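In keeping with the milestone schedule agreed at the kick-off meeting, the structural modelling team has produced records for the first pair of proteins. Each record is given below as a sequence line and a structure-token line. The laboratory manager (R.T.) confirmed that both were archived under the project's standard naming scheme.
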Amino acid sequence: MVEHGGSPGEKTEEWRSRWEKIYDGSEVAKMKRTGHFFSSSDEIEQWMTEQGIKFERIKERRIDKMSSAYEERYNLSEEELGKLREIVGDDDFYILTDWIIYPKE
């Protein structure tokens, strides 16, 4: 089984844009990341299909209030958390998808 957390299938670019502002570290230094990329479940499935990987999507769910998870993980101050929530706005979530990957025949 493979699990992926990423952007929604709709308005993907808008979602990515907001989270990129967080991960560039300019607004909340503790959140800086390098070498990251967000993809939607559909993009992952397209790639798996192109690679000839057999799979089945078994579960997909929306995980709300990602900012709360990051608050705890990075020990964000109230000011940092406020900035994070201001930037991501209504996009304070990610989509968690699980697939079964089947062996090649």
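The second protein of the pair:
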Amino acid sequence: MSPQLTIVLVMSISFSVFLVLGVPISVCIALSSFLALLPIYDPALAAQIIGHSFLSSLDNFGFLAIPFFVLAGQIMNAGGVARRLIEFAKVLSGPIPGSLAYCNVLANFLFGAVSGSAVASAAAVGGAMAPAQKEEGYDPAFSAAVNIAASTTGLLTPPSNSLILYALVSGGTSVIALFVAGYIPGFLMALAVVAIIAAQGKKLPRGNPDNWRGGRLLRAFVDAVPSLFLVVLVMGGLIAGMFTPTEASTVAVLYALFLGFLYRELKVRDLPLIFTNAISTTGIVLFLVATSAAMSWVFSIAEVPVFVSESLLAISQEPWVILLIMNLIMLVMGTFMDITPAILIFTPIFLPIAVSIGVDPVHFGIIMVFNNCIGILTPPVGSCLFVGSGIYGVPLDRIMPRLMPIFFSECVALALVTYVPELSLWLPRVLGLMK
């Protein structure tokens, strides 16, 4: 047996065993990477290689954007931003049937766009919407499914930590181009959820008839403008070249602090807990980055990217077939893997293949993040799934039947994004961010 095959077998078996035993995914990756090196290196050298891979993978200035955007999201969640965006979405959704379900999608899209976190969005929007939806007679399982599915729409719109990770791992894809490229696909993902709500028709309760009367909509909009301006501030500064993505993340933190104190919902005594939560979240993300980098290095010496490339090209030379296979693989693996390790592991494997068949790296980044947004809706690892289940108090076996139509609707949107590149590339080209 060749050393490369031995490495792959040891890694695959050990990773599967640790995963079944309930070991955290980051530890699974680290341990299986270490064990995979033992057939060719002594334990001390294998440990040294893994440790060096950990450190070198984090030695990147661009990663500073992640903790600052995480901190900005935490501050906005505690500082009244989420509540104002939800109120604006509630009024904007009007008196139509299912208005609170539409409001849930819109609120998740708006808050996700300023917080950059699907879990934070699911928790903030679901926590605010669940009591109102229950009072108006919505099926809790359906409401939970809508909230879970809508919570990931913000991951495709800036500031998205997932797109930042992809940019860094891909070896220099423009973060700004990726941010802009995500707007239309993010809107399509939200539209996929809206389509399922609309299909329910008049079965859903009607909204408040006063939502569009007496200047209520204008007042809600004016109240939400300072929060919405964060996106304008960050993206405007990036596109105009006023600051880098890392500098934009610090601007987001300062502006979020300003809003929190302006709204008088953020107190100085709240800051230690906010900083602690941000540090904890950042630590988890960066540890996943480090362990996934080690696994990618082991994959490279085992020539896994070359093997996968040759295998896919042996199946077909048609770009649409290869993209279909990659989508299916990422969708299946997304059920077992969180978005961060999935991006870090599959980008070095699939991106060279995608580029070789003529797919732009920016377009492929959107495809990859879109895939993983769908993946985190599904068990056994779907983080948003468990958050939504807990907030709405509905077991997973009741949520899944209501979530499956949305899942398939989002897969249709994924196919559109995959096979119509201009949905991702048109806006960056119009703004002169790419050729």
